[in-house]
Amino acid sequence: MPIRVFSLLLLGLLTVWSGSGSEVRAADDMVRLGKKTVSGKITKMTSREVTLEHDGKIERFPAGLIDSIRLAEEPPRLTTARSAILSGRYEDASRNLGEINLDQIPSDPIRQEVEFYQALAAAELARRGIGNLRDAGSQAIDFVNRYPNSYHWYAANELVGDLLMEIRRETNALEYYRAIEDVPWKSLQARAKYKIGKALLAAGRPQEAQASFELIDDLGADAPLPLLAGLGKARCLLAQGKGDEALALTQKVLNQVDPENKLVGAEAYNTLGNCLRKAGRNEEALLAFLHVDILYFADADAHAEALANLAELWNQMHRPDRAAEANKTLQNRYRNSRWNRAK
Amino acid sequence: MISILRTNRIGRLLLIVTILASCITTAQAARAWKPMLDGLRQRGFYDTALVYLEQMKADPNAPEAIKEVLDYEIGITLLTGSESLDRDPEETLDEAGAHFETFLAAHPHHPLAGKVRSHLANILLRRGRVLTEVTRQSELSQEKRAALLTEARAYYEKALPIYREAEKAANAELKKLGKPTSPELQEQVSQLQTDLLEAKLMGATCLFETAMTYPAEDEKRQKGLRNSAKEFESIYERYQGFLAGLYARLGQGRCLKESGDQKRAVELFESLLLLPGDSPVMSRLKQQAYQALIETLASPEVKRFADAAQWYQQWADSAQPTERSSPEGLQIEFEGGIACLQAAAILTKKDPKSQADRKRFLNTARRALLEVARTPGSYQEAARAKLADPLLGMDFEESEAADFASILKQGKLSLDRLTTMQKRLVFDRSLTAEQRDALNRQIADLRTEAFAHLHDALRRADSKTPIDQLNDARYYLAYLYLKDEQLPQAAVLGDFLVTHYPDHPQAKEAAAVALAAYADLTGESESPASKEIFNRKMIETAKRITAQWPEGPEAASAWTILIRSALMDHRLDRAREFLAKIPADSANRGNAELLLGRELWAETLRAMRKEKAGRPDEAKLSAMTAEAKKLLSDGIQRNVDANRIDPFLFASIVALAQIQLREGQTDQVIPWLENSTYGLLPLIKQAHPATANRAYRIEALKTALRAYIAHQDFAKAETTMDLLEKAILEPGADGQKQLNQIYVTLGRELEKILESLRTQGKPEELDRVTQAFEQFLDRIAGRSENASFQSLMWVGSTFFQMATTVEAQNRAAPLTQKYFAKAAGAFEAILARAKTDPAFLPNPNAGLAIRIRLAECFRRLKKYPEAMRLLVEVLRKRVALVDAQIEAAKTYEGWGSTPGNERRYLNAILGGQQIKKKDGSTTKLVWGWGKLSKLLARSPHNGDKFHQARFHLAYCRYRYAMTQTGPTREENLRRAHQDIEIIRRLHPDLGGSQWAARYNALDRKIKASQKKKSP
Asked: Angle at the Cα of B582 (from B576 to B585), degrees rounded to 5?
């Protein structure tokens, strides 16, 4: 399952699904893709495909396009935990999942479902400073190794890559992102290219990163990936000393960003802040990073990046009190973040 | 709604909405208090209204007519705000009652007394209703419910006779007054009719409420309902043209509904909704009619759910947002939602014909119940429960969304309370230090609380959160950031809202927040780069505001900022355009005029200082001056009227006074100096905050000094001079030097005034000012025992300057002599003081400089021996002092021109005052032009002095030659010519055009003399 890029979308869609719950028979498995929910019996599951039998028909769903699956026999706590995860309430999810006795779970698919969401919740909590990133990473790697046929397998690879990025092991992260590069679904391919670009950039290879970002346009990916790719390119240009070009590209993307898109908004203003800092325009950089702190703080990594920059900028502007406050938030909320230099 | 009001930070800039009460002076209060109070209450600012009333109570200057009714107004505020104020409603009603009682005890025959009695009855009625409301709680036992209803009934029964009495009293008064014969009587009659109607209506309401306290099956209930219906009907029949009549119809409908005649009740409610008119009062009535109608149609007895749903939809389509969020609105929303749900439930799912209706009813029900579930209030919990109805199938996520709304509401509540307390802290003068401390602690807690709620709300917002509510949260947070001086954060949020959501109801206020934040950031930034960046952002925001909302206070502030920006770019034309956009009655208009007026005046001064070739003509300069003067006068008047006495006004008055002084309108300047409210001198004497800027303070005193001199008010001029010296010699560096500079500048300025009067051809004015000035200088010099070094020096220098000016104009020689003598007197006074008190002089060299200047005076007065005595004193101390040597040579030269002293020309050439050196040899203390020219030739930077020496060398030879005859004469003429020829060879340009002209003229004289035969 895609985690960061589409989590908000999923959250919105879950409402529709839950809303139509009363129409569904209790014994059905339910597969949801976008606004469509199909109920029936899952007869086969691989990392690339889920087969569902319903109304006497067999239907195959590409794993990469499935938003979620609710299994007929799954324990209620798993349902609750899934909803909590999609609402970003990872502690609630973790608590509910922790109360499920895995020994009593009758089927392997349900066990996989529980373990995947456990790994996901542990990862998200670790990124917020609750728990350990390496432990969460081990859990996710374990899932990747044990369940190669899970429809979550690609999402689990992406999760491992994300966690490796957090501990600054970009080269290792690349291995996991590349595992999802050759999927047959363009949207997931595009996201893989984006993540690969980010890892390359973090590894100090901006030219290769730029090439990866540029491939996203060719894939014809849906919004917001092209915008994120544009911002990725701007960061690459900045890393190559082309500050003016980077700034112009960032401004161009900013003009196209939906003001309520938290993920792209955060990335756009962080990129803008970095461009302005590099140009010595610290006051404007401060305003850019404040956008993330006040308006676009939903993504942990982006918020942590903004806070780390704000702490430095406030100090440069002779406001040690504000700098301390930014640092405190960084420590409290994102203790394990790669942006937390005190860790 | 939050008003953002800050006024003064924008000395750097003015922005921010003003708190209603803050700008009201006592005089204005007499006119404005009632509309303001009503405005506060209508907006639900009951807390602020109470603070305002308490403030009026404590104000000894508040008019008596207002003080008299304060208890009444406090009572009304408490009564109407009892549900909204953040205090116990029961206690609030008690307090309201106590204020009404106080009012009645003090003014039993006041025209409002009848109304107050009715209000006391209203309190009883309200109390009864509170108890009745409690009985609706399902968990109450039958016994408890019955007991509470009995208690409620007692309140109603107590209220009823008061209403009846009020009705009787109003009737009697009306009969007594008869037909009104004057407008005053007409007004009284109208008031009495209103009181009468109110009393009747409330009496009938009391009957209804009393009836409803009995069980449904009890005959007393039916009888009571019949009676009240009859009374309502009678009121309606008689007063159906009045609003009260329509309310009576509503009451009648309710009685009918409760007594089982729902059909007739529905007809009555519908008839009210079919009435024309949508004024606020009619909308309020209709809102109640809608509620009653929907409730009746959806009742178990009627079960016309589809009709109820239709009426609900009609209401929802037409209701204003404020109506929808009011308690009545939420009740309609809830009952409408339930009606829709029931309408859907009775439609068969399988019937394809009714599918569309069913879906529509369910959607409407979901929307209505979600709205109620999101808003705290009596129906919130019930709505949440209803959302779980299987037909709606909503799960916890909707309640999450509702949580956003609840948290936002809490944040807003904290913010409103914070604002109210801050206002109280500012305006409630009766607060003790302890109370202030406590209030400050509460404010800090509320600030933390508001931040926490609003941040929490933003965290909880998701894709389902209504964007308007989310933006409300962002706006409140922006406002809170601004209040907490977190300026960049306030700027970011305000800017975000105005950029992305310009149609949001509070986008304009958000823009004002951004503007204020950028303005303050510009003001506070230390580095020029930061200043420039924030200034640019501020101008961008101002442009956006003026484009989006060209009118209103925010726009006026923005125009002011744009004026400032245009002025910084020297675009006076643009600034004029922007000024024209600010309405005359805007609070910003005054300061905008002052901004432009001051800049225009500065521009005029710059133009006046230009070389003649680049200077605008007199007509243009006069027009510029006139425009500056008009703008300053208008701006000052507006700010004075608004009692806005601040540094900006102070500096503007100084500028206007300077213009008037330049124009010789001294009479008009004096009020600017002396007015007890805004006069420059009283403000300085009071150390008013408006005079905080030292530079403007000194400028004001200089202006005052000039004005008093011109006005020949010497006593005040002297006092002002003392103030000026005191201001300048405040502890700090370089006071003495600054004072000297000021006096010199003042002397020059006064000279300019005199010059200006001369060129304007105003001889009488010129003489008057000159004479006045001379007398003033005499007075300063005359108090030499008390006069400072600076003032005496100034007197001496100014007289000296006046003498040289008069001399240059070839005016009367006696006048020149008089001024030189006065100058000498001042310099002598300094030397006399220094003799007894060496510390009188600011430094040891000052004594030498003064002696040289005194010697020059003596020379001009032809007192050559006295002059030489002084110069010898100087040269004995510092023989190489070039200025002293030049003055000594000039003295010999002048001396030589007097009969019998022609040999002094030789002293002027060769030097004099022989003295013995330590080695026994002799030397001349005074060098003369010959030695001076040789020594000065070695220092290139003394070029002018060198030519002065060379010219005078030749000139003295010529003058001496002309006193001689025969070969001596010829020899000296030859040498004089030779002196010039040498210079011509060494310096072909003869030291520039000025010196060349003099050399050539002298040479022509020499040659002419050589041609003539020697006598």
From this structure: 130
